[in-house]
Every structure is written in structure tokens, then in C-alpha cells.
Fold each of these.
Amino acid sequence: MHRVLISDPLSEDGIKPLLEAADTEVIQKPSMSEDELLEEVAKADALIVRSQTQVTKELLEHGENLKIVGRAGVGVDNIDLDAATDNGVVVVNAPDGNTISTAEHTMAMLMSLARNIPQAYHSLQEGRWDRKKYVGVELKNKTLGVVGFGRIGRVVSRRAKGHRMNVIAYDPFLTKEKAEKAGVDHGSLDEVLAQADFLTVHTPLIDATHHLINKEAIAKMKDGARLLNCARGGIIEEEALYEALQSGKIAGAALDVYEEEPAVGNKLLDLPQVVGTPHLGASTIEAQENVATDVSYDVMEVLRGGNAKQPVNIPSIPEEMQDKLTPYITLSEKLGAFLGSVVRGGLNNINVYYSGELTDVDPTPLTRKVVKSVLQLFVGNRVNDVNSYKIAKDKGIEINEQKSTSTKGFTNLLTVELETDEETRSIAGTLLNGLGARVVRLDGYSVDVIPEGHLISIHHKDQPGAIGRVGSLLAEHDVNIATMQVGRTDIGGAAIMILTVDKEVEPACQEHLAHVQDINRVQYLKL
């Protein structure tokens, strides 16, 4: 039974998948004290939070059984990602669940900013009829500058175009071709700043985006431009914005997020040209349910041994690449485990080579599986997809990834090479239509081996009787051979045999095999 701790209030409908799962026990305890939280997380397999719970290094270290932390929302500012990675804990969020909600709130703020709606309503409440004071501007033919062209930025752009606005977007990953396909203009950050009548930001808050819109950036904008931030507090430097609003350089601002929250007492909110809301971007019934549901499914998938769709601290497999990469996940793990079991010496490098159709995609998720399966043999089961790269780096092991057009006759070929202080060994595998995973080369020898079950790898001299002597000795130990593959480079030279047997090979049997005539090296492994 998997124990899932929910420490912040979540939509009951959103966590229904967890509540209805037969293999999951859900503990809902919002607003716990720090000591209570530490006590509960020590017994949990998964933790789900929103923005209230601070997932610190101390908390993660108390979660000895913790496999996943789910953030029911987009931002993960309240989670120590480095500590989660060090502890092998997957962190997931729900970037899609509040896309519509935040985009719609941005448009509401845009309209309110353009037409002074909150200020006009407030004046009516105070008994004034100030029609001339609150003359606004139209959106039609104005230019909306979008900084950050991810999910929300794209949706905002589509809605803005519905208002007949011109849209110019900047994003470090946005190409001219992608912008053209989305129906927007592509620009550098400076170009977007210079052309925008309204500027909206939709980036995450990271070191590169902290105070991205600062005094220098604002100076590059049109006089009388307007600013919006419904993304993360801190992207816009508030002191610089305050000065620009006071001077008239910026005509108005609409803010849903702030550098310090709650933003009670924020001097920006005292300015009449500022429209403010208390971080409501994701505050719709639908969004609250969506983010909880998305995280619930990811939590269940990870607890059941699967892969998260929205991991934050490990690369995910893009949806369009899943059909191509997913079948190779098991193969990559098997190849790493096979080679890691037979290599000798201290590990220096893990090299992974991809050829054929695999060169058309980003194979990093497969490399991560290889690294994990190799390191587990050296370090133990505390190594997983999350921390494998970190552990390799800490131990001075270099990871290299390379693509090649040479397929050696196969549609796809995945080759793993391990370099130690004693030797370099390699293994190559592929997927055969209708037959599944196959090892097709080992240390340069051509073979055809299914990478599963009880296997014996034997290096020997290619001499008459070598194979027979191995078979006879295994029979003496009551070990039945299921399959055998033999490879050689030269007649009478070095050769290899790989046997699949029906049961575990005891150490005594392995020792006897190693002393058989013409046998140079024997290694037993179980995949």
C-alpha cells in the first residue's frame, strides 16, 4: 500500500484518482506544524503540496521512503530541487492544468488596464461619475509584446489576436519558423521591449529571469507603454516599475504576483494607475481540479514503477517522441546492467552511442536509464533516474553521449561502452520487429542474445572441445542450458560464448568454470 501525504488544501474532485486507487492510502493534513509535517513525511511514499508547504532539505531527508513530491501548480519555488535530486526524489508539477485559467486572467487584466475598469468602479462606489478621468485605449492595432512563449504565452497571444492586436514574442527557444507558424512576429528581447504598447511576461522565475524587466529594460520601452505580470513575482523589478510609473514612462501596470507575498502594504498598489489582484491566476474551480488531477496521476504512475509525465528535476520524454523512445527504455536499462555486471576495475567513463532513427530524437532519457542501471551495480539501489547523473558527477564518472549515422545493418542501434582503470568493454543492442530486445554485439563479437534471465558470459580460446567442456561441467552442477551464442574474430583465436541457463549459477560452479581448459574469463549475471 502506497502512503500519499497531502499537506495543503486540494480539490477533492482533483484527488479522486488517488482516493479511489486500491493500492493507495491518502492522508490529508493541511496546516500542520513543522514537527507534525516531519513526523508524517517520514511515513510517506509521496507528498503533494501547493504553495503553502515549504519542501526543504530537512523535510526531504526525513522522508526516507519518499519517492515523489507533487506540486499541484506550476511554480516549484517552495521545493528545494537540488535536495530532492540528491535524495533521489522525483519532483512533478502541473504546467498544463492552469494554462487556460492564467491566460484568461491575463486577458482580464489586460482589458482592465486598458479601460481603467477597477478604478472607474471604485470611483462609482465613492459616489463619483468621472467619465473623462477614466478614458482608456483600444486594443485593436496595438502591439502586445510577449516575453516567454510557452503554454500560457501562446494562449494569451491567440486571444490577443482575437482582439486584432499585433503580437511580437521573445523566448530563448522560439525560432522564426515557430513564431510564423503561431501567427506572431519573432523578436529579440530588445525588439519586443521597443515595439510593445502592452508588455506581458510569462517566464518561470529563475536566475536568468529575476528582474528581467529592470530599469534598463524599461528605458528601452515606448513612453506610455503598459506592463502586465501574471507569471511570477520578481520577473519585474518593482522599484524600477514604481519609479517608471511615477515619472509617466510607464502609463500603467497590472499585477497578479509580487516579489513579496502577501503583498499587503506594497507601495505599487497605492498608485492609481496600477491594477492588482492577489495571485489569482490559477484560482478557478476548473484549474484547481485540473492541477490536482494531473499531479495525482503522475504520483500514482511513479509509485507503481512508471515514469512521470511532468517531471521537474529530470528530463521528460516529449509526447511526440514517446512512441519512438519508450520501447528502448527497457533495452537501455538491460544493456547498462549487462555491461556493468561484467566490467572490471574502477569506472571512469560511461559512453552511449546512438545510430539510425534514434539520431532524430533527444536520447537523454535513454542515457539516464543506462547510467542508472550501471551505477546501481556499483552504488546500490539508492541510485535512480533522478540522481544518477548527480551521483556519477560526485564520483568523477564522465558521461558522454554521441550520435552516428552508422547502423551496422540495423534500423536503430544503441551501444554502451564502459571505460575503467583496467579495461574498456562495449555492448550493442537493438529492437527486432516482432522479436523484441536483442544484444547484437559484445566487445566486437557478433551475437544474438535476449537480455533477460540467467546468463553466463565466457571469454575463451577458440579450440575444439571448449564448448563441450563447458556444457559437461554445467550438467554436473545440474544447470541446464537454454540457449547458446558463440562469436569469434579469427579461427583458433579469442572467442566468446553467452549462455542462457534455467537457474542461478552458484559461485562454486562459476569457480569451476573459470578453471576449465581454454576458458579465460567467466561472469554470471541475472537480468
Amino acid sequence: MSHEHHAHDHAHDHGHAHSHSHEVDGITLAASSDASDSDLRPAEVTRRNLLRAAGIAGAVTAGMAGMTGVTPAMAETATATARSGNRATIRHWLAGDHHIHTQYSSDAMYRVIDQAQHGAAYGLDWLVITDHGGATHAKLGVDLVNPDIVAARKILKDTLIFQGLEWNIPAAEHGTVFVAPGANEVAVLKQFENDYDGSVKGASGNSPQNEALAVAGIQWLGKQVDKRRVADALFLANHPARNGIDSPHEVRAWRDADPRIAVGWEGAPGHQAAGLPAGYGPGSARGYYGNGPGPNSFPGYPAESYRSWGGFDWFTSTVGGLWDSLLAEGKPWSISANSDSHVNWGTTSRRPDGSDSASFNANGRYGDPVYAGSLNTTAGDFWPGYYSRTHVGATERSYGAVMKGLRNGRVWVDHGALVKSVDVRVVSSDGGSESLGGTLKAKKGSRISLVVTIAAQDVPNWSQFVPSLNRVDVIRGAVDPTYVTDRDTWKAPDTKVIEQTDTSGRTGTFQLRYDLGRVEEAFYVRVRGTDANRSQPGYLGASIDPAGPAIDVVGDADPWVDLWFYTNPVWVVPTR
């Protein structure tokens, strides 16, 4: 799980990755209990017989025997990693958005090509069309949208356009589900939606049976990959804290159901324009995070969890909170930032006359938008790429590489083009180095350094000003896979901000170096940055986060004056 290279290799678009490839290799397929012998090539049948005799988990886990403090849970994670592919060099940071709606959603209006053209114009390399799951979409929309996606792929040859859907997770919130393009992309999505969507199945309520259906849906997606029906599939939870109904134990259950499929959540929701003050905006809550507890909400979440903080979801923005609680178990969980585009602020289009809910239910779509003759200042969304971006480290510009990068956790996210690029590496005195999503194995007692290379923004963003990165924060947490005895735990016992660096006035490409001391126990480190316009002590107190994002004010949360970037973690594990 480690890779050695020199600490000075800090080109903007280069890194090193260990792969969690979901392009099914022979070992994964042969080890799969779902794939029958008839599904395998002769060589794979032979390999399966060998695995049955020897035991794949034992063979791979044995390779971690020299790692200090490694528990069976961490070894299991390493086993999954080792099964899934080889390390590869990051050659591109590809910006994208995995949460976008079209005229095939009952509450949206744009064509696929409208969303894709704007995404490409605003700098996105990849995007996912995720119309709402439900009876009409399952019956009509999932089929009807595909020709539009295929056509857009031909028109915008340099933009990777995935087909997905927004899953009504049984007993929980929404989530993005998408698959790699191929002959069965529609068939797999349609079967998944009909069999596992909470709305279609009447399984929205909070019950053990509905929670089990969500787990079964994730596992079913993994089986479709094992059977080679699709080359890859991913699930990420959307706006997870918005209604308080994604309980900690449900998130852990999704993650553990199939870590190849369930890889993360929106660290920052869409609808970022919703907080623009009335007069030139909707005057609502940023991200539409303006709700409170309901009958299905988890009672352990405080009132503050229903608000965004600096435009980010409380699960992610709270240092030592639920995201860190998941990471402290030593299991990957990624973040993203997306538009959730339905109807966009500042546009001049509308649905055509006669295109109402009745016609939508009958036809599975609204008519193509028409010119409205007026400016929409009450919509809460931005076009894809206009404000929020998810940057994925990829070996090449391909669908498979984007999905692999998401699974690997090679991800950082930003708002308002706060910076041009971020490179995060941990380096050990014994010569090892790893980047975002990676695990550095270092000899116990070796000294660990964190190297953060940032290219400051030098061109205007889409609100026509050049953002200024004025502070960078380093967050560190211990890894102990045994600390969670209650799966509804949402606090990490050790995670805190360990450094805050004033970067105001820094231009060009600059590097920040931090001494993390000598490694004795497993830990992770992650980084965030801000324009520092709005800060307050974190929810868990100033001793944990002295100056984190401020809670957003409902009706007065201009997103352009409160910009942040967040990175995924890098892990460090000592060896003997």
C-alpha cells in the first residue's frame, strides 16, 4: 500500500496512486462468490480453485503482518486494496460534478446538452446526469435520457458524460449511483431503480427492513460488476446532513456493504446560490440546508447539523465529527462538491407552456426550455462547474480512470475557484511518500513530514474576481479501528487542527512543510484552506478547531464571500 518516490516531485498534475480498480481483475472475479464457474475463463477457474485451496484473504493479509498496530479491520481494508489493482501515476487532475438534473427530473428543466455544454465551458472534464429516481423515471426516464447522453458524448468529445440517477436511499436521504458507459448501462440502472429505490418500493420510512434494502442495493451493484454486466459502478451519498436522516450506523452499513461501490458523500452540497440575499437571490438557506429534525431523523444530531458551515455539510465541516469518526476507523470515505443543478440562478429560460406535472408523468420528461424574457434571481442553483468542483486524480482521461480515482480517494474539492491546484504528500525519513487517498508505510520511529504545494489563483473566477487563499489548516487524527463500539458514534476522539498557516499575499506556486514527528501509531492527515472571510470555533470547541468555517445564516449567505477547499486524507501506518 505504499510507493516510494522523492519528496521534490511536486508537479501540479502528478502524483502516485495505489489503485482500488473496479475494472474487475482475475483475482477479484475468481474470488467472487457471485460469479459462477461458467462465468469465468478457464484460467480464472484454475485460479479460483487455487484460491479455494489457499484462501485469498489469508494470503494477502499475511503481507501486513509486519505493520505495527494493524488490526484485523485494517488488514481487511488492505486486502480489498491489494485485490483490486496496481499503483499508477496520476497524470491529470480532472474536475467534475456527480450530481446534475435535467428535464427528466420532475423538479428540473434543462436538456442534457445544456448541462453538459455549460459544464464543459466552466472547466469540467467529467459529469454525471442524475435524474431523480421514482416511478416515472424508473418506467420512462432512465430509458429516454440515454440517447440524449449518447448524443452529448458525440458532440462534446472531450467531456466524459456518465449516466446515473439520484437514488432515493431506503430509510435515508438521496445518493448518486452511476455506472461506466457500456451496452448494459441502462439495463443495470433500470433494474437497480426498480428493485432498490425507496420511492419505487415504498421503503422511505426509518425501519430495519428498509435499511437492509439499501445495503442489498449496494451489494447488488457490486455483483453486476463481478458479473461484468458493467465495468464499474459507484455510490456517493448526497446532502447527507440536510434532514438528519442518514444516521451514523446507516452510513457505516453502506460503506461496509461493498467498499468498492460505496465510496463517500457530498462534503459540500449543491444549491449554493440559495443563500444569496433576497433582492438579487432567493434569500433562502445555503445548500437549502434550512430544515430541522423530523420523525425519521437521528436523535443524536444537534440543531446545528441541519445548517451548512462555510457552504459545507456539517458531517464534513466539523473537525472531529462524523467524517473524522469514519476515517478514524482506518476505512476510506471520500468527499465531493457538486452543483445539484435543477434550475439555475441568473438564467433567462423556463419550461414551455403546457409542460406541467401531468405531461411529465405521461411523457417522462418536460419539453425543451424556451426563452423566458426575464432574469431568474430566485433559483438556488449554479451551472455545473460555475462554483463547485470535485478534482479527481486520474491516470488518463477516461471513464474508468475517473471512477478509479474517486474510489482511491484521490480527491480534493473547492468552491469559487479558490486555488488553481493542491498537492498533498506525506514523506517519511526512510524515503517513502504518498499522496491523497494513499497509505504510507513507514518504519516505526521514522520522521514524517507533510508537504502541501499550492498554486494560487491568478485568473478571475466566474464571478469575475481573483480569489485569495488567506489560510491553510492541517487536521490530524489517530487511527484505531477498534474504538467504535457503538456504530452510531459520530465523534472522533483524537482528531484536531494541528497547524494554521497565514498564506495571505502568497502568489504563484508555493510550498508549505510541516513536521509531523516520529511515527509510532497509525494516523491520517487532511488539509483545508479558506479566504478567511468567515470563521468561528468549530462545533466541538476551539481546542479542536480554533477557527473553522462559520455556520451559514439563513437568508444571508453569499457563497462568493466564503470560499474553502478541502482535501481527502493521507494515511500513515508504522511498520516494525
Amino acid sequence: MTETLAITLVQCNQIVGDIRANADSMLAARDRAAKMESDLVVFPEMNLIGYPPEDLVLRPALIERAAKEMERLAKATESDGPAMLVGSVFVRDGALHNGVALLDAGRITATRFKHELPNYGTFDEARLFAPGELPDPVLFRGVMLGLPICEDIWHPAVCRHLAEAGAQIFVCVNGSPYEIEKDVLRIEGVAKRRAIDTGVPMAYLNRVGGQDELAFDGASFVINGDGTLAAQLPDWEEVEVTTRWVKGKNGWSCIPGALHRLSDHPEDIYCAMVVGLRDYVDKNGFPGIVLGLSGGIDSAICAAIAADALGPDRVWCVMLPSRFTSQESLDDAAECAKLIGCRLSTIPIQPAIAGFDEMLADDFADMNVDITEENLQSRIRGVTLMALSNKFGPMLVTTGNKSEMSVGYATIYGDMSGGYNPLKDAYKTTVFRAAEWRNEHKPKIGLGPAGRVIPQRVITKPPSAELRPDQKDEDSLPPYEVLDGILLGLVEHEKSVDQLVGEGFDRETVTRIERLLHIAEYKRRQAPPGVKLGARNFGRDRRYPITHRFRSA
């Protein structure tokens, strides 16, 4: 009768669709786990093909390749060393399933399929997969393992069924994207409840890394049957931990191990932006990034994020002054680039502005100068930066925050141009908090310099697009503290104008912001991707029609 068990949790990154490389990485992890005398090495949800695969799983060639690689992984377990629990896509009776395979003694000894398919927010698994039946436990070396998959533990039915069927340990593999305070929700709101409800301990394994607009924070853990935390893996880092389990008179439990501190706010947001940008650039094969450094806070923090993600030597900042650019902004941009340690070029755009003025003179005759000329400056900057990207290869990073994107305070084909936006889901007030935090801390995953990276004046001066004399953002928008409060209500919580007025906001202001939010939808549809931070990011979480006339006022 087995009295001890060693389970290695591999909190790892993966590349969607790079099936051979993912399999090779798992074999290497198995070799390392063998040296720890592990019995079972576990990988995150769908780790063989990468998660989320989206419509790639509809490609028969991908299904075939995944099946061949799974057989190769299974054959590898003929040699001494641990068994493997591997997530992938499976076909049964013509239907696709999100599932796991237990590989041992050179073969696939068991498969289990995900029962609860999430179909909300960033998830649309019900569109791609068929739900598996309520899964039964798997007998592994004398121990009954319950194998719920991610969403399966967010509802009580699967864990209760497994416990009633004799499960002694839950091993739950996940692809759970980062979201503010989600680490607490996973442990306190879900895993502890399932463990206490059933009396069965749980090893919860999550992946780490960026995939398009999602960042996975890892933060895997083990909960014993009494609800106590036995192990806490770090967030935002790849790590392999071998957990030791013993059978006592009250059943199985995990011997307590290291409890790593998880990132507090806003460190967690900053790390999500770093990981999202890093993996987007690296997995898509860019040599680095280029961005317009204006002397303002948004571009400054994007430059800092890029340096922490890629290293300062892969960051190219470009100052693109017009006649409205202040000497203060020029100085602040130069100091910021110096603090970060990245390259800075200066390309004045006045010659291009003069060229457009001459080119449009006849058609613009007798017309007043207005926002058209302001937007033209932004578009000239976008064209210039894209030219540098095309010529030399770095990806253009765009720097608009969520407050601006919400109300359309951004120029399409201008400052919205780019391949990726780290701030897409960060409100302006969040940008200020993150900048203050970064000046006082170097993130544990950061490749940038320690110490201050953003000049203090950049943080404290009134924000301005500098597209006309003495321009300030608050000429067109409410103060950001007010604007962000309104937007949190309208976007994250779907509140009406009346509800927000009841909370103390001015009716005319809320009505105007709601209108701006809706009419800017067409811009957001054409915006580059950016990492999800909150509960409702634009794109995957919040899918509004461009054309509609609903207003809650």
C-alpha cells in the first residue's frame, strides 16, 4: 500500500501551436523531476498545444500532430522516472475535448475531459469543445487521483462527484489568466471551498507567461483537506516544485513547503504588463520595440515596461517634437531615456507638417484651424514611427491608456498606430500608481535598471497632448480621478447614468462620457492588442456593436 507520493508541479510558459517544442520542454522537465525522485510530473492545462488555442484546434493537422507528440511523450515514460499528466486536445466520437492524459509505463493509461466549459469573458470553450462526462478518479500507484480541469473547480459538482467516487487527492491543471485580485479568489473563493467541502487536498497548477492579450501569473498552490495552505509557488516566474505527500489516519495530505509572497497591487499590474509585452515581442520574433517618447507619463511608463520586459538595449525611444512641444517635454524625454538606459532619437515633424499644410492648402482654404490639424500631427508621428519599424524591424508600441481609449481621446492611424499596447487595460489613475511604484521598486522579473526610471516631473505635471498652445487634457475631459470613477461604473460594472448620478457624479458629465464611450467603439475595434488587467477589457471581455443607439440616460 502506497504511503508516500511525490508530485512535481511545473509552472511553465508555452508557445501556442509549437507542439514539438512544448513536448521537448516537458521531457526536459521530466528528466529534472526524476532527479527529485518524483512519481508524477504535472503540466498546465493544454500545455502540449498551448492555451488558449482558439480556432487552431479546428485544424485537423494540429490534432494529428498533437496525437503523435502525445504518443512520443507516452513512450518516454518507459524509462525510469515519473509518470506525466499532460493536457491537450482530444477527439472522441467526432467531438473535440479539452482534456488530460496520464502517461505511465510507456503508454496512455487514462484520459479525462473537462466537464465545465467556460463561455464568458475571455473564454469561448463551449464554441470549440464538447463537455466531458462527470469524471471518475484515476488509480495511480495505489492512490485515487481526481483530475478536475480549471473551470471544473469553479462549480461544486465535479469535485463532489470525484470525492464521492473515492478521490483522495485532487490534481487540478489550469490556464487561468491574470486579473486583479484573482489570486485571492482562486485560493479563498474556490480551492479552499472545494477542499473543505470534500475533505480532499488539492494541488492547483497554473501556467505563466503571455499569450496575445492574456497574461498568466502562475501563483500555483497546494491546499490540504482542512483548508490550510501547504505550498504557494511564486507568481510571474517559471518554477518547478516537487511536493511531498503522505497518507495518515485522516487520509492524504501535503507536507508543508515554501509559501512565496505574491505581488501586491500595483506590482501585480506592472508585472502583467511586463510579461504580456515580453512574450508578445519574443514569441512573434521581433528584435525589440520602438515607441514615441513624448515627455508624458504614458510613453514614459511604456518605455520602462519595455526595458523591464526586454532589456534597455532592445528599446528604441523616439522624440518627435512639433512647434507645440515644450522644452520641458524635450528635457523630460531625454532624462527618462537616460534613466532607463535606452536609445533616444529626435526627429522633428515640422517639415512634414509644412508639407501637409501646403498639400491641403487649396482644399482647406477659408477653413478655421481645428482638431483636424491636431490629429494630423499625431498621424505624422505614427507614420514616422512605422517607417522606423519597417526599416529596422522593431515592433511599434503604442501608449494610450484605457481612460483615453474609452472616450476616444486618441487618434486613429496616429497615436493608436502600433503592434501592441501595454496600457490598453490600464486607466490613467492606474498609470500614475504604477509609475510611482516603479520609481521605488524594481520588479522581480525586470531587466531594467534599479531605482528611479521616470522623472518625477513627468508624474506630477498636468497631462497634455501638446497639439496646440497651452493644451491640457482637462480642457477636453473631466479630471482623471472623476473620469476613471465614471468609466469603472460604465465599463466594468455596466451601471446606468442614473446609478452613477446616485453615487454623486454630475449627470451632464456622466451622460457625455457614456456617449463618448459608445461612439468610440469603432476606434477600439481597430486598436492593437494589449494585456488584460481588469474584469472587462476592451475586446475579449466587452464585445459591443459599433452601430447602436442605446443610451442609459
Amino acid sequence: MVAVQNKSRRGSDILKFICWIAGIILLNVLAANFFFRIDLTEDKRYTIAPVTKQMLGSLENEVVVDVYLEGDFPAGFKRLQQSVRETLDEFQIYSDGNLRFNFIDPNEISDEQQRNEFITNLAKKGITPTNLRATEDGKQVERLVFPGAIVRYNGKETAVNLLKGNLAASPDERLNQSVEGVEYELASAIRKVAFQGNKVIGYLTGQGELEMQQVTDLLGSLQEYYRVARGELGEIPSLEGLDLIIVAKPTSQFTEADKYKIDQFIMKGGKAVFFVDALNANMDSVGAGGMFAVPYNLNLEDLLFRYGVRLNPTMVMDLNSGFIPLVTGYAGDRPQTEMINWRFYPLLNNFSQHPITRNLDAVYTKFVGTIDTVKAEGVKKTPLVFTSPYSRILEPPVPITLEEARMEVKPELFQDGEQPVGYLLEGAFTSLFRNRLAPAGVQDTNVKEQGVPTKIAVFSDGDMVRNEINSRTGQAYELGFDRYNNITFANRDLAMNTIHYLLDSEGLINVRSKEIVLRPLDKVRVREEKTYWQLLNLAAPIVLLGLFGVSRYYLRKRKYERF
């Protein structure tokens, strides 16, 4: 009887073993033919956006990504390094083998001359090294870190800066912001080199807008993604064929025919970005005696009002502002110059959580005004950029003198709070020429009174996209570069993000809204309870394993004692 039972049990065990083997083989066959991945993290940090997957799946040739964030780093940089590696691993899977990446440490080059040449070439390509200070074995050490990558495709290449975020944030927060932006930065670079953009941007002139040399950096950056055309609005019959128009710091009046062309372009689904000053003020006119800033007569107010915003004829002073050089005294015949806070140049470091402005660094502005919203049915209005809480609104005529920079600050005057200076408008707009005849001088007199859904962005500072010019060489500085303080602000990022959002029908810019929650450890508790948790982690697994072995031994002994 016992032999029969043992034989039956043996047959049952063999059958179970065969079923397990068959199940494992079936699972491997299914895994080989049906690909899937499950992200169990709360913030979906390992989930690649559908638009990124689609782009990677459309690659026709191999993309090569050389990442220079390699070496022995502190925990924060290791986390960024690991995030880049994990993201590229995911990209490789969804690219069907059309993506390859390498991690390179420039500091490993033994020959000093070759290493310096290599570092110089990286800097020319846009990867600027960062001098990282860390504590190792109780000593302060410095290491040169290259938080960037080069993306190559079919002979084209572009640099990617992986250390992004707001400089005003703590180092941990900035690294976390950089981790949040890894997917977008890499995907955007791949799109730049691998997919030829067919959208057309028109830079409009004819109303005293910024000259081409003053927008060289912006238009050059846009040409990496889009086709860019320039045209004088008064001489163009219509704006057909364009996808987006840029109006940057107009200083003279728009005719009704000019406004009609813009209006009908928007009614037909065209996008637009306006960088407009309400008051006439510039440093060239301030001089020794100062000036009064008075409103421009642009004849553009009613158009923007119909779309949902009003550019107020005001000027903002802000305690959070830039600096200008001023002569504060003389040493003999030589003037002594100091950098003085100039409250007419607000530094904008207060943003909404919209994908355009998320994790953006500070933006440098000059003589900025305020914006209000007005009723416009079917239009969603999203404020993008604000001044600091310590702002002051001035009504025209606004006296602007260099003496103001030398005056003692009275904080009680700067109590007007945060002021919006940039808005995104989305929806189906109503034409300014509704129930009106088309103005004289236009080609198409068939007025489209109600528009199709589209997007507009309005900023109350025309200098926001103006790059400075080197007076000695005549070359344009990088957009956002403050030559007096040798700092580059995020003006170009703001302008590019705005245009990408307006033209991005696939939604890649929305990847910037990815959020990874920073969960720092309690450093005091870590220090106090370090020994306890170390012992627990070492002893607990051994104790549990021993208890499992003893329990299994007695259970098996009890089970087989009956036979």
C-alpha cells in the first residue's frame, strides 16, 4: 500500500515538474513575441511618453548618443547619471535597435594635451564642464564634471545639456529638476537631428521691430527645428503658408490692413507670439538727464483685447532685478564703476507649472509692463511668467533716471505683489473684424469672423528676445547673456519652449511636465539611528532564514513521520 502511494506521489511530482517546464517555455515564447513593461513607481518615472515612443519607432537609421556624465560622483550626480542610463535603455528598446549609446569619462584620457583638446572641443560644441566640489573621506575634493551628451544621426550632431533647472533652487532640487527633464532633453535632441521640420515661422517687420542682428540668436536656434522666413507685413498680401508669426518689439503703428492680415491668419488656425512694450523706454535714451516713458501708439491694443488680454500702459519696478554699471566716484582722473541694482530690469523667477515654464531658470527683462485678462468666450488664458512679490507699478509718464539706482530703497513702495507679464491663450478666437468690412488695401475681403482652435502667446517685454551686440566685434551675444555679470539667463529657453508648445502638434513639449517627487531622508534620524538600522539589515535576514529552515525541517519531519 505504501509503495503504491509513493509511486502515485512520484508520478504526480513528475507531472507538476513537466507542467512547470512547459509553463516557463510558454512564458518565454510569449515574452519574445509580445513586448510589455510595467512601471510600478508612484510617479511613473520609468514610463516613456507615447509621443517619444512613436518618434523612436520612426527612426530609419541609427542614432548614437555619447554621454559624458561618467565617473565617480556624489549621490546626487549618480542619480542623474543613472536616470540618463535608464532613459537611454528605454529609448533603445523602443527604437527597434536604431539607438546606441556610450558613457565616456573625459578625465580618463591620460595624455594631458589630448585631454585638454578634448575638453576644449566639447566646450565648443556646447557642453560646458562643471567644477564639482564634494567631500570624500572627510576631505574636500574638486572634480571636473561634463553633464552633457552629443547626439549624432546621419552626419548631423547636437549637444544636450543634462544639468538643467532653476539656479535659485537648492542643489538637490536642481538635480531633481534635471532628472525630470532627461527624457525631454534627449528626445528633443533626437528630433532635431533625425527629423527635418516642415513648419514655417514668419518673423514680421515693418513696424520698427527688432532688427535681424538683434534676434540672430533666436532665429538661428529656431532654424535648427523649423524653416524661418522674414517679411515686411505691409508688403505681404497675406500670411498664408506660415504656421507661426513672431512680432518682436514693434515701435510704430500698425495699419488696419496689417491687423487684418494678422487677424485672419489667426482665424484660420495660425499661431502667433507677441513680445510687445506698452511704454517707450530704452537705456540709450536715459542718458545723464533721464527720460519719461510714455505709451506707444501701436494701434494693436484692440486686436489683443479681442483675443483676451490687455497690455496695460504701465511699467514695473522690482526689487528682484538686474544690475547696470554706474560711475560712483573718481580716483584721480579715472572713474570708478560699480554694478548697481537697476529695478527697471526685473529678473523673472516666478513661473507657472505649465510645460512651457516648468523648471525654467530666471529670465532677464527690461522695462516690462503688466498684462490683464478680459472676457473672450471660448478662450483659455494661462499666466506663464510673473514678477516677484516685491513689485511696484508705475503709471505714465514714468520718470527714468540713473539717479534712481543710487537712491535708498523704500520697501513700503514695493507692495504691488506678483504681476503677470506673459500669457498663453488657447481656443477659438473671434475676429476683430466681425460685423465689419475688410479694410482697404487687403487682397482677401471675405472676412472669417470665427476662428478655428489655435494658440497665441503674449509677453509684455519686447527686449525679452533681444540679444546684445558686442560693440567691438559687431558679433551677437547669446540670447539672455548679461555681459556685465557674465551670466546667461533662460530667455532663449522661454522663447523656444513657447514656440515648441504652439507648434508641437505631437505633444513632445508636454514631456516637460513630468514630475518626480523628491523624498529626502531625515539626516538627523539617519545619524542617530545609523547603527540600529545597519544591525537590523545585517541580522534580520539571517534570523528569518534560520527560522524558515527550522520551520521547514519540523514541518517535513511531522509530515513524513506517519509513513
